[in-house]
Amino acid sequence: MTRNTRTVRLATLVFLAAAAAGVATKGQSTPAPAPGNAAPPGAAQRQQNPPSIISRTQVVVVPVTVKDSRGNLVGDLQKEDFRVFSDNIEQKITGFSAEPVALSAVILLDNDLAERPGKQLQASLSTIAAGFGPTDEVAVVTYDEYPETVADFSANNDDLYTSLKRLELGTHNTQVIADPTTAGPLINGQPAPSTQGPAIHGSGRYKTNIALNDAVFAAAGMLQARGRERRKIIFLISDESNSGPNAHSFEETLHSLLIGDVSIYSISVTRTIPLGRSLVQRGASDIDKFVAGAGGDTYFADKPDELDRLYSDVTEEARNQYTLTFSPGQLQGAQDYHPIEVRVRRPGLRVETREGFYLSAIAAGR
């Protein structure tokens, strides 16, 4: 064998060894699929971007306040003490909590009260901040014909105190002071009704139309985006007027409260009917109806010095509600709205909660 022939054969052997080593290395990094288990087209891309697992569970959140016959909060009930019904069918309670909950609140202030209650409210405004804690977030809105945001949501209690301290509320004088030389005719000592312009309330100060529905609708819209883990409330202070005209009907406004899980806590600065009397006995105002439909409570400031106490009562009650949840099943009919009834097994207690829910509003993530 010649020297050249040996050289050629040696080169051939080196080439074949290198090729074999390359095949072995490739086989280690990417194993060949087993016979009959070939990877389907696009499998590599799906491995890099695995599909998201989506789970949709419909859950109704039901805040519940329980009081005894004297109006005191009852805080020692357990899950077994409650029963929840929807469409008169008992529902299984899937979640229960008696722990205090952080608040998302819109303080909604009537900006056209009569002069006396308006001054009383003005003097007490800054003390509202004391009822909120470091985990709460609060916005401030005033309203008359239109709602106006004074301060957006903030968890800074010092900022809330400052906003309320600096806020100047509008009022009107309920006594007409007229110039006798230009006054019109009187009937029983009072100015005769006129078709010229709005009714006058004081020295040149006309009473503004009060659009309560629109104010509540706007506040509910602000709260809808807040987290479901928070208790969402409208803290309303007013004389309960709703003279309109409103862009939103009562039904539209209640719907906005229910789909946002928003309750209303109202302090009336003019009515003096004792808390606890039925709506039938005292006659239901629009605020009473909002509270009955969406949940919450109504308070009445009989005396000026009661406002400070009522502010803390409202936040204490809202924060310390029971929270029940259920996944609706066996509902009757195909309608969107379904009534809710909550009962307690212990006798002599009064239960306050929302009157119903919209099925379309409880999709996951709402």
Can you characterise this structure?
The protein has 9 helices and 18 strands. It is of the alpha/beta class. Residues 1-47, 49-56, 175-182, 196-206 and 272-283 have low confidence and may be disordered.
Descriptive keywords:
18 strands, single chain, six-stranded mixed β-sheet, alpha/beta, four-stranded antiparallel β-sheet, 366 residues
Short description:
The protein has helices at 3-29, 43-48, 115-124, 157-166, 212-224, 250-259, 279-282, 286-294, 306-319; strands spanning 60-67, 82-86, 89-91, 93-97, 103-110, 113-114, 137-143, 147-154, 171-172, 186-187, 190-191, 231-238, 262-268, 296-300, 322-326, 337-344, 350-352, 356-358. The chain is of the alpha/beta class and 366 residues long. The strands form five sheets. The protein has a six-stranded mixed beta sheet with strand order 8-7-5-12-13-14, with helices on both faces.
